[in-house]
Amino acid sequence: MLEQTLASIAKLSYPLDNIEVIVVSQTPEITDKQLIGNCGFSLQVLLQPEEKNISTLRNLGVKHSSGQYLAFLDADIAISPNWASTVLSLLDSTPKRAIISGMQVSEPTAPPLEHIRTCISSAERDTNVAFLPGCNLFLTRETFDRTGGFPEHLITCEDYYFTDKASQFGDLYRTSEATYLHLGEDKTFSQMFKKELWRGQSNLQSTKGRRIPLREMPSFIIPLWICLFFTLTLISLLIQALPMALLFCTLGTGPLLAYSIRLYRLSKHTINFGSIVKFYAVYFLARATGTLIGLFTSIGTHHK
After folding, report:
1. Which residues contact 197 (CB under 8 A, 6 or more apart)?
2. Are strands 127-129 and 97-105 parallel, antiparallel or unpaired?
3. Do 169 and 238 reside in the same domain of the chain?
4. What is the pTM of this model?
5. Beta-ladder partners of 6
6. What is the sign of the dihedral through the CA atoms of 102, 108, 109 and 112?
7. Distance (Å, rounded) from C-alpha 88 to C-alpha 138?
8. pLDDT tens digits for range 51-81
9. Which letter does DSSP use for residue 215 in this model?
């Protein structure tokens, strides 16, 4: 997938001799010779120890870069040919903007889970947003320096923390004019569960040292709320307290159905409603479990 990411950069309509690419990797097998080929742009590979987190790797990449503008890309996305020229134009045309991001798209043959992820990611487009995922970010070096870089104390949620801090200096804008494919998007619900379990461990840590807007509170409360009331439902059934089981089940199901109906409408009824309910059930369970685990320990697998 990294090779596909680099290949998409090589197809950019922007002049390649103005681009430097720094791959910060924890895979010793990767070498410059394997990746360079006829890419047409400057490329260097920095190998780092396994224990370094994503924030540390990204901050290191910035230290080895020289450009006035910075683009952060995950190593499993393919950007559209107009990506660089579009985000550069959008950033320069509006001084109040701090970060620009392209919009996620998916292939027509993608499985339902990928369409769900894409729909959620692309719900807000051609507008300022509260948060941008770290898979494709474009900003000036000045903005990066003002934020203090990515938070190296966090194992996950670093993109939320970083873009929230950048929003203090300007707008976060997602455009539909530039797009990307997430090559490494989860294809199965078991993959998604493992990844969200890992991501959830930094939920509470990510709140330290920054303001918590009201709109963000449901992301902390709802997963725990749903899991709590479904657990109480099971306990009530075991002790044969049926009225209590019905009450707890209703309290747990309410938010789950509300989120599912909202996404179903957002997708314009193009995604199976049952798949959406299954998605949120797995998502909330994984996030709640990860949050609780994160209170006591860290899950040491480097998912991204």
Report:
1. 286, 287, 289, 290, 293, 299
2. unpaired
3. no
4. 0.81
5. none
6. positive
7. 8
8. 899 999 999 999 999 999 999 999 999 999 9
9. G
